[in-house]
Design brief:
Phosphatase 2c, domain 1; five-stranded parallel β-sheet; six-stranded antiparallel β-sheet; about 400 residues; about 40% helix; 10 helices
Amino acid sequence: MRRILVVDDSRAQRRILTSSLARQGYEVTEAGTGDEALEVCKQEHFDLILSDWMMPGMDGLELCEAFRQLSHAGYVYFILMTSKTDKGAVAQGLDVGADDFLAKPVNPDELRARINAGGRILSMERELQDKNRLVTSTLAEIQALYDSLDRDLVEARKMQQSLVREKYRDFGMAEVSLMLKPCGHVGGDLVGFFEAGPDTLAFYSIDVSGHGIASALLTARLASYFSDGSPTHNIALDLEPNGAYRRRAPETVADELNKLLLNDLRSEHYFTMLFGYLNLQTGEVEMAQCGHPNAVLMSIDGRAQFFGDGGMPIGLIADARFERQRLTLAPGERLIFYSDGFTECTDDAGTMLDEDGFAEILRKNNALTNEALFDSLVWDLDAFSGGQDLGDDLSCVMVTYKPDST
């Protein structure tokens, strides 16, 4: 504490106080009236104001009240000197902003003690201000980093969405539609399809454990192993001596991915998958289920039938075994691979939608297809959850078998 303003209509009293404070090392300014003191405070900053209560014109109480209405760079400690001792007067002084009181006549030792007490309070206040400035500065830096990260995540979301280059394709005998909806900026779901030789359509649904950037990076890597534009690098295709490509069995594809994840990628993540082939001529489907939700077959009249026996996720156990499953689509039937974001969605009471609820939503929207169906599924899922955040990625691949259309 360095600067003190002494306000008293008594010149003699001001000189006594000023001399005492100057000997203690303080820089002291004097004012003879409340009005004069207020004008000085508008021009200069003080650490402490020591004012007489009883003064002609603006008294100490009015000065304190008017002073507190001024804007200040920091807190100023205000001591009223008074001969008043009743509690009502003290309460009145505290109400208008006084911090302490000093009885008149002023005792030098008590004056020093009161000023030292005020100094301690001001020191704590300024220390708090310094810490607040540090916190504000740190928060600004964090916000800048967050904004930068947010921009990067927006770009990452665009890149992840680009992994699904085609959301719909008509193969004549069948058509396939895709939906990919991360719950955050980026997610761990992946869906896709590609041609796997003459009259064969391959399609898959993948759900990487966890959420966020690490999961999204793994989905990008997995997408490269199912490339539609570069069959040489497609893990599901083998090159034959005649230059043609032959599909590998779905359980073999799962086994190769399991070895790849455990031995080469060495990721801490694992993923579930449904991978299948559709014979466009016969409607026969061969698929491997690797810990993914059961496939659902929708009949023409909207009935939903689930197929699957679970299986082991990919990337957990080195010697995991994967089995092949078969079913046959009739003309007009649809086969859907989907992520557990649908069936594990919960309502306000924490009850999951589960397969029965999902089947009911599918039946309700049976007249819709492709993107219109996906939009309705998300809409109904949001209604089931009561509008709360779904909390998990949503993805879906739907194959409609329509041999009579060619």
